[in-house]
Amino acid sequence: MATTRFLEWCGRLYIWLLLAFLYLPIIIMALMSFNVSPFYQLPFEWTTEWYASLWQNDQLISATWNSIKIAIISTIIATVLGSAASLALYRHEFRGKKVLQALLFPPIAIPWLITGTAMLIFFFGVGIGRGLFAILLGHVALALPYVIVVVSARLQTFAPELEEAARSLGANQWQVTSRVTLPWIMPGVIAGGLFAFAVSFDQFVVSYFLSTPGQTTLPVEIYAAIRKGFTPEINAVSTIIIVVSMALMLLTARFFKFGGEK
Amino acid sequence: MAGQVATGSRSGLRSALPLLLPAYLWLTVAIFLPLSAMVFFSFMTELPLSGKAWSFTLDNYATFFSQGLYWTLLLASLRLGLEVTLWCVVIGYPAAYVLAKVLRGRSREAIFLLVILPFWSNGLVRIFSWAMVLREGGILDTALNAVLPFKINIDLMYSYPAVIIGLVHSYVPYMVLTCYLTLQAIDDSLIEAGRSLGASRLQMLKRVIIPLSMPGLVAGAALIFVPVVGSFMEPRILGGRTGTFYGTVIEDQFVAVFNWPLGAALSFILLAVVLVILALASPVLRRAA
Fold first, then answer.
1. Is cis: bond before A43, omega within 30 of 0?
2. Which of B54, B91, B124, B156 to mutate: most A Cβ within 10 Å?
3. Domain at B156, CATH number
4. How far apart are CA A6 and CA B43, in angstroms?
5. The overall pTM is greater than 0.90
6. Which of A131, B32, B142, B266 is the most buried (most CB within 10 A)?
7. What interface predicted TM-score (ipTM) does this complex get?
8. Which residues does the UniProt record annotate as the domain ABC transmembrane type-1 (chain B) (predicted)?
9. Into how many domains does chain B fold?
10. In a domain, B2, yes or no
11. What domains sit in chain A, N to C, each tagged with a CATH number?
């Protein structure tokens, strides 16, 4: 049994090495955003100068607002439309249902490069063009499948007899939905909404092809800045983004168990 | 299309339609029509919007097949996808195994969350963070030179290994996630039974554990391979001049060269490749479902 113990010990060590690999670059980036030297030179000297200068950067600020606004609006639209669609798929049997469910996977599986360029071509062709509205259209579409999949998974745990019971007690369709079904699937709806927010707020590729110089989102602005040359300001704003999106994900995990654990 | 398919039980569809329609209409406008438009555009000589005369042509596809450059780049991207996927298996599978079979209870839950957490943070920013680690005079360089007695120069930035490292970092959580799900489903008593019948650890791994977790491996591989073949931001940032791949060429057609019809044809060829890969992976995945 000594070997088993030794192997388990190796396994634990390995996991910590993997976590180091995953987190070290992020931690280093965060540390460097508080370092005086703009060329990331050591020794480390503490400063919040770069965060202060973020406030002076109007381009970044306006891109940040765009990102937040678009993420909130697409979250609301995708959550409402997606939850409605999940309910319909759950309640009704009809031919072609399998096809509709299968149609949710191309948006998830096709690389964003392809989806993004396709949207650019089509939106240009029909006169929508580029800009914030086009980005919003795209983000909602990218988030919808995630919402439907997550809410449908929650609906799997719902007993249809509950709806039957409410109906036989005289509740109408709206009452059944709002008082019985919705409260039950709420954790799924919230998780789906947080997914949608993450998909939109972190989205780079599709936004990149759909943005114009004035109408752009934060990741696109950061990409442009990186290609011009690194500055500690990008570190600072990147650190803020990573903290926000990780906090958001921890929140999601509270509402929605990953990994199929009981 | 839905209308045709659903004639069989119209009542079910009719009552489902009001709830169903908005979401699927949106997907149609923003995903399915654009993908169709891309196919259409890829057969054109010019953008019909620019006012210039246009006609249908096969030239864009002829360009792909006649110019060795695009072939070479597609192969380079496929190779990149393969290498990144293999590294993710090598790094991710053992981690998934430890998570599923060694760790227990709360520590397993916490570490699992830690592994998949970065995956949901911004990919662009994570790639950028590697730039700081890998460049000459960067953290890795400074740290190693501080520890080692001799002077070494680590300048991985703007190289093929840098692209690999960045991509593996981005995608390895996928592999851990999918393998963990299938490994967790393997009954522990099955492993105990095999062991008590005298199977060595290696035999158990080869004959029982790996075959049973195959769906997770295949799902993870597909989820990693497909986006890596279409990646362009990671090679741009970490690869510099060596980072020209199929994805970066498509990006160029749309944002730099403005040859949209050629870009559409290149995108469509990539889509075809992606669909073939997903089709190849789907029997294994369906067997698992």
1. yes
2. B124
3. 1.10.3720.10
4. 62
5. no
6. B266
7. 0.88
8. 74-281
9. 1
10. no
11. 57-255 (1.10.3720.10)
